Amino acid sequence: MGSNKKKKTLLNPQAMPRHIAIIMDGNGRWAKRRGLTRSMGHREGSRVLKKIVEECYNLGIRYLTVFAFSCENWSRPQEEVDQLLKLMMDYLKNSENELKGKPVRIRVIGDRAGLPDEMVSEIQRVEKNTAHIEGLDLVIAINYGGRQDILNACRTLADDYKNDRITESGITIESFASRLWTAGIPEPDLLIRTSGEIRFSNFLLWQCAYSELYFTDILWPDFRKKHLHDAIVHYQGRERRYGGL
Ligand code: FPP
After folding, report:
1. Is 26 helix (H, G, I), strand (E, B) or coil?
2. Which domain holds residue 202?
3. Does a structural domain hold residue 120?
4. Residue from 4, 12, 58, 73 carrying the catalytic annotation
5. Residue 143 annotated in active site
6. Is residue 243 part of a domain?
7. To test ligand 1's pocket by mutation, which of 22, 27, 143 has the most ligand atoms within 8 angstroms of CB?
8. Is residue 118 part of a domain?
9. Among residues 39, 147, 20, which one has the least CA distance to residue 90?
10. What are the pLDDT digits (tens) for 93-149?
């Protein structure tokens, strides 16, 4: 404080978050400031995602979950929705080639019933082809909503209860979590949201109960490795108590 010297961000490799979740916000504003279409902002956002995936891999992060398309995003203009769907399809189709040498397993969370058939097939293909990979798990949230995730788990649980697959006392935090779309994926240690908005916007509501939150004014297309490092350094400076002392 009181010094103009730039603080050097030193990452502690021994205390890396296991799971980082990102709300990649600000593509539209980034494009508007440049007189570009919103879709061009998303395209740039997609490029940035590739770089950040690579960096997470290099840093030894085990899970990265990104919010690509929410259940509420269908209400955007059709042209923008189409472009987002196309970008996600391209990403899924090209991911194996582009991430050559970087073992990345791809998983998709969200309501698949609402997605076009060809996208569901592509998701199944890429998930199957990368299922054996142990490196970074990239979890892409597509047609995802935290409330929808919880509701869906409730319905599954009700069905299991009705059909004697679970008893009332068997309903626990763990058995509930195992019915969420994120089953088997540990909860995020760090949630990053770009573009200055300070809210969850229906992302991983159950899963982020104890996550450290990091908000930055940087718009997603301007997000670089150094901003990721800043977020991790912030995380490493926090003391996580999980409700204890
Ligand atoms: C929010 O910015 C961003 C989105 C709704 C989409 C995020 C998608 C990508 C980064 C690229 C596509 C994803 C993949 C997996 C290839 P916004 O449009 O709400 O920005 P604004 O708040 O500035 O309008």
Report:
1. coil
2. 18-145+186-235
3. yes
4. 73
5. no
6. no
7. 27
8. yes
9. 39
10. 998 777 777 889 999 999 999 999 999 999 999 999 999 999 999 999 999 999 999
